[in-house]
Amino acid sequence: VQLQASGGGLVQAGDSLTLSCTDSGRTFSSAVMGWFRQAPGKEREFVAAIRWGFGTTHYADPVKGRFTISRVKAENTMYLQMNNLAPEDTGTYYCTKDTDWGDLVAGKGDYWGQGTLVTVSS
Question: For residue 26, what pLDDT is reported?
Answer without folding.
Answer: 84
